[in-house]
Predict the 3D structure of the following.
Amino acid sequence: MKIGRRLRVARKQKRLSVWKLGEIVGVSGVAVSKYERDLDMPSSGVLMRLCQVLDLSLERLFRSTAVILSEPAYRKRSDLAVKERKAIMTAVQDKAERYSEAEELAQRHEKLKLPALSVSDVVDVENAAKKLRAEWHLGHDAIPSMVDLLEDHDIPVVELAANDHFDACALESDGRPFIVVRTGAPADRVRFTLTHELAHLVLQHPSGKLPERLANRFAGAFLVPADTALRELGEHRYHLSMVELQLLKAKYGLSISGWIHRAADLKIISSAENIRWQKLRNHEGWRTVEPSCGLPPEAPQRMERMVMRAYAEGEVTGTRAAELLDWSLEKVLGNGEGYANSLVAEPGH
């Protein structure tokens, strides 16, 4: 079995050159390059040293599942350097392969059919959000968990440790969408980011590329439909209170900033009131972190459930389950208390 691509992915994740890796394991950079291009096979001793340096298990190295990912459009706070993009893609490649193998173990082979909703302006976007909520039988109330909602509709969500320049990206593998989000982001930001990426998956724009402002408008409209916003805020307001916005954030999982934008978009508040709040946002630094309101963190668990089901049924060993989930073997073999405790975290922001 060819192992070159996985060696290359693991090396890039460690941010090592072929020459540096060769120096560490005791071979030339040319030799490492040949291994990665499957032009040569390392000896057993070199292979073990490569795995040790790259934190790469033999099971992962010889994994049978392979995926080909589309080039993603990144959602980011500032421009990502080319090196950072490559590091993200190599990590996403590994995550996607693990996820695909977990689906094979769970015999989940459905071909997802997402709706294709044509939009050209904000009115179309509002209607598209309303239509998708209707198709998914969501009503007009708050969505308890965007992660659960997407996973329940067979849209894989994976977390990725990255710096705060990266928020998320949506990409495809063999026509199957994946949404990747940054680990540890505040819950309200995760919810908005996931819904923003959902917009890129379901909305079709005449230009062929959905403008970011329309994706943002969809995210707000999907999380808080227009009639819900009008019910909560009223048709016209001279002022909004901070406590009121915090309570609404806690109920609907839309940030304070998101609620301000929603009120402005729907003409509930005047442009002057909107500007006043935007200035306050900038002054208080809420663009980065908003005041906490007790939102619980959202984290994907579908892959963990699939792998642990396969382990319980004896379809994979504990070692294999641990490798797929990047867990310790003790965590896989435990009675569940360790994992349950790991889900308890500080309230989101």
Remarks:
- The radius of gyration is 23 Å.
- Residues 302-342 form one domain.
- Confidence is low (pLDDT under 50) at residues 336-341, 343-349.
